[in-house]
Specification:
The complex is a heterodimer of chains A (148) and B (666). Chain A is of the alpha/beta class. Chain A contains four helices and four strands, in the order βαβαβαβα. Chain A has one domain: Rossmann fold (3-Layer(aba) Sandwich), CATH 3.40.50. A five-stranded parallel sheet of chain B has the order 10-7-6-18-29. Chain B has a five-stranded parallel sheet with strand order 20-27-21-22-23. Chain B has a four-stranded parallel sheet with strand order 2-1-3-4, with helices on both faces. The chains are: A alpha/beta (148), B alpha/beta (666). Chains A and B meet through helix 1, strand 2, helix 2 and helix 3 of A and helix 4, helix 5, helix 17 and helix 18 of B.
């Protein structure tokens, strides 16, 4: 999966993982030695519903090339309903990002359980491959910081 | 969450032997960490989690007056608590510790040292950025209800309940079927000692029923679960038995007189029939029948009522309704057991078309004196005694394709040796052949048992699989292969027994969802740690007993049941639990009382109160959100719903997560 043009383009990819399923799934991918590219950096959150759309916008402002959010499978949320909120919020956010010029492929929501180390690794490999194919992202700018 | 003093951060990088050090340049991580603003101390050690490593953390906290600690090591799921404890011993608030996961998320998956080191540095920076914004948190307390719930009344559930009750705590068992006993009550003999299953199980059933601390709800199901460790609120549906438990004497006349006797008997694996009013087996506990309303003539047509007429105790009650029992529990044990897989995808074995092709559990009932043939080994098609039998191993177990299960069902090799031995012992003229992939006998006296079957009882073991079973002139034709002699085998036999794979009880998915306990792709419940916490679910207060966690035999199930019980007792022995202080908190100055947070809270932890606030010198009474920290579980749903940014999650605050994002994207 390691792409040739890696030297020139090193994507920044942020992965938000819920503590109970996906972070544990990432740990399992680690202990099972299932490799995925080092471009992915994981931030642990208690639940996917803790991911504020603001965090994702901030990542794109700071030059992230892709953001992926992983949570428990629908119906299996540790907090019962958290991932349903996350799913709805992300659907809305992603449609807006498209409008802002951040392609759909740069954002993704995946459900990875604590037992799915293989899935975690596969998803990350696919996602990174997608980001490589999309190339560098346009940086979102914060107009408040701009001098007129 | 104010940061009102200059933070002094210490960074501790663990080699984890060579687990981390082999693919991460520790020295470069240290150098990079030391350059970060706020970092006043950086050191590495072979094993940071060891006593000597923790000692280094404690000493540095004291000597350098650290206000925050970052440990670059394994997953926080592994050792976060270890290092929080170390910090606390040195007088630092335990919640001023953050972990950078550079083992599971770096060294174990990135073999390129350059890439690995770079990622480790970035993750360390993110953790430093986060800990800069950490605030000391105080854990609260919540009370523990001194009562446990066991879901499932098989040997696992019974043993767990007995052990908890013997320690002095109240236990309720909820069993779906009309009697406790589970799969073990269907077995005839047990390996490797050939004990009669009923002889060792029924005394335990009686003990459980008689124990003053145990309440048994049979013909009942868990309907709703809320709450959390220490105080779960559970609704149990007691299905209408249509027989008054307090009046019934268990005489059994109703079952004899019931005119509706053509209902497949689940207990005998549907090999014979039962009445519409029935107890599953003679030693059932409680010995009170139930009316199967779907098949009862009285319930279907309104005309019958024979059972009511013959009941001298007047116990039959057609008007009985389902009853909901609401109870609070400190801990819940799942012991839902297993069933055999369905064989509709395995046409090659002709299980559906030939009555003489049976599963091992059906053979178990046939061999049992209380079974459909009264314990006589006979063909179900014509009632004749077989002269030859073939056992096929791994039907659906260790299966590479979609039809079966990828795992080994673990018990089949041993019970097949048991069946073969018992048949050769009781009917020496029956020829017994076993087709196997591997014979797996890891257990005390297991291999000796298998060798006895081969050497003393003359059971033929053939290494190879069976491709087809077909009916042929009233007998069965078995086509297989002998991999050792490398030849095809075509043999005629009278009965074929399939060692069918076991799978978790299908109901377990529903139960796991109610308990928010995690489950794997095969529907086995996940344990908190495969080696070190094998009977605990990752969900606090939920424990696992028996096959719901993974295939196991009776000795292992009983051992695990005891282990689950001691974990429950350890929990119930506490009067109070320390609660997670990483809970939501509302800033009353920003809150506009809109109720958005209250609507998304799954725990009902948010309420509104009128509070006098001092907003930059203006004193006024405002309606503001208030979080009950004992109820809040810290998911953070409210923080995102809050339009004014008043609601924040302690330990995972907006500023902390944004700081991590910034550090990663720097």
């Amino acid at each position: 999966m390691q792409v040739e043009n890696k030297k020139e383009f090193q994507p920044k990819i942020v992965a938000f993982c819920c503590n109970w399923c996906s972070y544990a799934g990432a740990d399992l991918a680690g202990s099972s030695r299932l490799a995925y590219p080092a471009d992915v950096k994981i931030i642990r959150v208690p639940c996917s519903c803790r991911v504020n759309p603001m965090f994702i916008l901030r990542a794109f402002q700071r030059g992230a090339d892709g953001v992926i959010m992983c949570g428990c499978h629908p119906g299996d949320c540790h907090y019962t309903t958290g991932n349903y909120y996350a799913r709805r919020r992300m659907t809305l956010l992603f449609s807006m990002l498209d409008y802002l010029g951040v392609e759909h492929g740069r954002t993704r929501v995946e459900w990875v359980s604590a037992a799915e180390g293989v899935k975690f690794s596969t998803v990350m490999n696919e996602f990174v491959e997608k980001i490589y194919s999309l190339g560098e992202n346009v940086r979102l700018e914060d107009l408040r910081c701009k001098e007129s | 969450m104010e940061v009102n003093q200059v933070q002094r951060i210490g960074v501790f990088v663990c080699h984890c032997g060579t687990n981390i050090a082999a693919t991460v340049d520790i020295k470069r991580v240290l150098e990079a960490a030391a350059k970060e603003p706020g970092v006043v101390h950086a050191e590495d050690y072979q094993y940071m989690c060891s006593e000597a490593g923790q000692q280094k953390v404690r000493e540095a906290i004291k000597e350098k007056q650290l206000t925050g600690v970052v440990v670059c090591s394994c997953s926080p799921r592994m050792h976060e608590n270890t290092f929080r404890g170390a910090a606390q011993k040195a007088g630092l608030n335990p919640y001023m510790v953050e972990i950078a996961n550079i083992r599971e998320h770096v060294s174990w998956i990135h073999k390129n040292i350059e890439e690995g080191t770079e990622k480790a540095i970035i993750l360390t920076r993110a953790a430093i950025a986060k800990v800069m914004l950490n605030a000391p948190l105080q854990a609260g307390q919540s009370k523990v209800v001194k009562r446990a719930l066991v879901i499932g009344g098989g040997i696992a559930g019974i043993q767990t309940a007995l052990d908890i009750a013997d320690a002095g705590y109240e236990v309720d068992i909820v069993e779906k079927t009309p009697s406790i006993g589970g799969r073990m009550s269907q077995l005839d003999k047990t390996f490797p000692t050939l004990d009669c299953s009923a002889c060792i199980l029924t005394p335990k059933m009686v003990d459980a029923a008689a124990h003053e601390k145990i309440t048994i709800y049979t013909y009942s199901e868990v309907e709703k679960v809320s709450g959390f460790v220490g105080d779960f609120q559970v609704d149990i549906r007691k299905k209408a038995r249509s027989v008054d438990m307090s009046k019934c004497t268990g005489c059994g006349v109703c079952q004899e007189k019931c005119p509706s006797k053509k209902i497949p008997n689940e207990f005998n694996r549907e090999l014979d029939n039962r009445a519409a009013i029935y107890t599953p087996f003679a030693q059932a506990i409680p010995n009170v029948p139930v009316i199967d309303r779907e098949n009862c003539i009285k319930f279907k047509t309104g005309k019958c009522g024979v059972c009511s007429k013959v009941c001298l105790a007047g116990a039959v009650d057609y008007e009985q309704q389902d009853e909901i029992v609401s109870q609070n529990y400190g801990a819940i044990v799942v012991a839902t057991g297993f069933d055999t897989i369905k064989l509709d995808k395995y046409e090659e074995y002709s299980y559906q078309s030939c009555p003489d092709v049976i599963t091992s559990l059906e053979l178990e009932r046939i061999m049992n004196a209380a079974g459909p043939t009264k314990g006589h080994l006979e063909r179900l098609s014509d009632g004749k005694a077989p002269k030859s039998m073939v056992f096929i191993q791994c039907v659906g177990s260790r299966c590479a394709d979609e039809r079966g299960k990828s795992y080994c069902s673990k018990i089949c090799c041993m019970y097949t040796a048991k069946h073969a031995m018992l048949i050769r012992d009781k009917y020496p003229d029956v020829d017994v052949t076993v087709f196997y992939i591997d014979v797996r006998t890891p257990g005390k006296n297991f291999d000796e048992f298998y060798r006895r079957a081969v050497e003393e009882y003359g059971v033929h073991y053939i290494k190879g699989q069976v491709g087809k079973v077909a009916e042929h002139n009233g007998r069965l034709l078995v086509q297989g292969a002998d991999l050792i002699d490398n030849r095809r085998i075509l043999m005629e036999t009278d009965m074929v027994v399939l060692a069918t794979a076991i799978e978790p009880n299908p109901d377990v998915r529903k139960i796991a969802t109610m308990l928010t306990a995690s489950i794997d792709t095969n529907n086995f419940l996940t344990e908190s740690h495969a080696k070190l916490r094998p009977v605990e679910s990752p969900t606090a207060g939920i424990f696992l007993s028996g096959v719901c966690q993974g295939p196991k035999d009776i000795p292992e199930t009983v051992a695990q049941a005891g282990a689950a019980a001691i974990k429950v007792v350890g929990l119930l022995a506490k009067d109070y639990l320390v609660t997670n202080p990483c809970v939501a908190k509302s800033d009353e100055l920003y809150c506009n009382g809109c109720s958005a947070c209250e609507k998304v809270c799954p725990y009902g932890a948010i309420s509104y109160e009128d509070r006098e606030v001092n907003d930059h010198g203006i004193r006024e009474v405002r309606r503001v959100a208030s979080v009950n920290s004992a109820l809040c579980q810290g998911c953070g749903a409210c923080t995102v719903a809050c339009p004014s940014g008043a609601m924040d999650l302690q330990g995972f605050s907006n500023r902390q997560i944004l700081a991590e994002v910034d550090a990663i994207c720097r």
